[in-house]
Design brief:
Elements: E1 4-13, E2 16-26, E3 31-35, H1 42-50, E4 57-62, E5 65-66, E6 77-80, H2 92-102, H3 107-120, H4 136-148, E7 154-158, H5 166-183, E8 186-191, H6 194-200, E9 203-208, E10 211-216, H7 218-223, H8 228-234
Helix pairs in contact: 2-3, 2-4
The chain binds adenosine-5'-diphosphate and magnesium ion.
C-alpha cells in the first residue's frame, strides 16, 4: 500500500514561504512526477513527504494514517537521491545491505534480499566492488537497490538521473519504468525535465513557485493545459 495524501501542506523557511498550501492525492501504485522549473519547490515537497523536513502547517496522510510529524524511518518510504549518497569504503553488497543491517535483520534474510535486488538491477557481477569502481549508471542502480531491499510502500526519487549523460539517462529512465511495472509500488519522481515527465508518469503534478498549476495524465496536460505556463512547460501547441 502506498497511498499518500497532502492536505493544505505549507512550508516556510523563516519569513520565506516556499510552499503556500498544497492539496494532493497520490494513489497506491501510481507513478507520479513532480515537474517544474528549478527552485519551484519540488525537492522541498518531496522532503516534506519523506519527513526530512517538518511541515509548517497542514497534514500528510500515508495509507490513511496521519504521518505528520512521524519520523522518516517510520513512514515506510525510501528516498533515492541524485548524489547517490553511497558509502565509498563499503562494497556494493554492503551498501545495499546497509538499511537491513541497521534494521537488525539476520544474515540469511539480508543475503537473499540483496542478491534478489542485485539481479533485478544487473548488479550481480559487481557486488564486491566499491562505488568508486562503478560507472554513474551502476552507482545509481546501487542507490535504487538500497531502496528496493527495504520493500517500501513508496519510492521517492529526487532528480535521480541528472548526473548521468544523455544516453545513459534514456536507459535508466526505461529501467525505472520497468521497475515500477514489476514492483507495482507507488513512485514519486521529481524532475525539471519535461521529456522524463511525459514519458514516465501516470500522473504529472506541475509546480510553479510552490503552487500546483495542474495535475493530470501526460495526455490530459498535453491536450488540455490549464494555462499558458503548463502549455509552455509541457510543450503543447496551445
Ligand atoms: P526545486 O527542487 O524545485 O529546485 P527546492 O525545493 O530545492 O526547489 O527549493 C525551493 C525554494 O526553497 C528555493 O527558493 C530554495 O532556495 C528554498 N529552500 C529550500 N530549502 C531551503 C532551506 N533549507 N532553507 C531556506 N530556503 C530553502
Ligand atoms: Mg530540487
Amino acid at each position: 500500500m502506498g497511498a499518500i495524501t497532502l492536505q493544505k501542506v505549507s512550508k516556510s523557511f523563516g519569513d520565506v514561504t516556499v510552499i503556500p498550501g498544497v492539496d494532493l492525492e497520490i494513489n497506491d501504485g501510481e507513478f507520479v512526477v513532480f515537474v517544474g522549473p528549478s527552485g519551484c519547490g519540488k525537492s522541498t515537497l518531496l522532503r516534506l513527504i519523506a519527513g526530512l523536513e517538518d511541515v509548517t502547517s497542514g497534514a500528510i496522510r500515508i495509507n490513511g494514517t496521519d504521518a505528520t510529524g512521524m519520523p522518516p524511518a517510520k513512514r515506510g518510504l525510501a528516498m533515492v537521491f541524485q548524489s547517490y549518497a553511497l558509502y565509498p569504503h563499503m562494497s556494493v553488497y554492503k551498501n545495499i545491505a546497509f538499511p537491513l543491517k541497521m534494521a537488525g535483520q539476520d544474515q540469511a534474510a539480508i543475503k537473499q534480499k540483496v542478491e534478489s535486488a542485485a539481479s533485478v538491477l544487473n548488479l550481480t557481477d559487481y557486488l564486491d566492488r566499491r562505488p568508486g569502481q562503478l560507472s554513474g549508471g551502476q552507482r545509481q542502480r546501487v542507490a535504487i537497490g538500497r531502496a528496493i531491499v527495504r520493500e517500501p510502500d513508496a519510492f521517492l526519487f529526487d532528480e535521480p538521473l541528472s548526473n548521468l549523460d544523455a544516453s545513459l539517462r534514456v536507459n535508466m529512465r526505461l529501467e525505472i519504468s520497468e521497475l515500477h511495472q514489476s514492483l507495482a509500488t507507488t513512485m514519486i519522481y521529481v524532475t525539471h525535465d519535461q521529456v522524463e515527465a511525459m514519458t514516465m508518469a501516470d500522473k504529472i503534478v506541475v509546480l510553479r513557485a510552490g503552487n500546483i498549476e495542474q495535475v493530470g495524465s501526460p495526455l490530459e496536460l498535453y491536450r488540455n493545459p490549464a494555462n499558458a505556463f503548463v502549455a509552455g512547460f509541457i510543450g503543447s501547441p496551445k
